Amino acid sequence: xxxxxxxxxxxxxxxxxxxxxxxxxxxxxxxxxxKKGKATTTNLIAVGDDVWITxxxxxxxxxxxxxxxxxxxxxxxxGRTPREQIIAVNVDYGIIVMxxxxxxxxxxxxxxxxxxxxxxxxxxxxxxxKIDLVDEGYVRAEMALYERIGxxxxxxxxxxxxxxxxxxxxxxxxxxxxxxxxxxxxxxxMNAVQP
Length: 195
Hints:
The chain has 195 residues and is of the alpha/beta class. The protein contains 4 helices and 11 strands. It has a 5-stranded mixed beta barrel with strand order 1-2-3-5-4. A 4-stranded parallel beta sheet has the order 10-9-8-11, sandwiched between helices. A hairpin with a 2-residue loop joins strand 2 and strand 3. The chain starts with a strand and ends with a helix.
């Protein structure tokens, strides 16, 4: 009988999953019997899932079992039949990145991200990026309500380095997912934190 190894999903598609287990990277497929649970979600397995695999070669494996999740970030999938699209699981913090300048600063979108985090047992942290491009006082006034009701807000600039030590402190001791619209600076922040 082949040995089972516990691993973590690093990247997921509909067919192949990149798993880190036993100090190796594997490209894995899902055992057929596991696919039964897919009806209510668009994806059975997501980034962050803890899984048990059976290696079939030095680089390939079969996913035998999925561990229970303690949190998840998800959204409703587009289309006529509403299903849940799981973005990431087993996440401690959802770092909601919004641009202070462009694209538009949208508090309705921020509220939707906060709701998605809260529903999935993920603690939301608001990260206002590109703070160097606007009147910081105005943005801080706009975010004062969020801070008063208990949300952490970090004001950052990937360009000047403002707020990066605070962001690093959050990322250091946790599993976090950065979420936000295209163009808000998620990649720039990650490159500034981890070149």
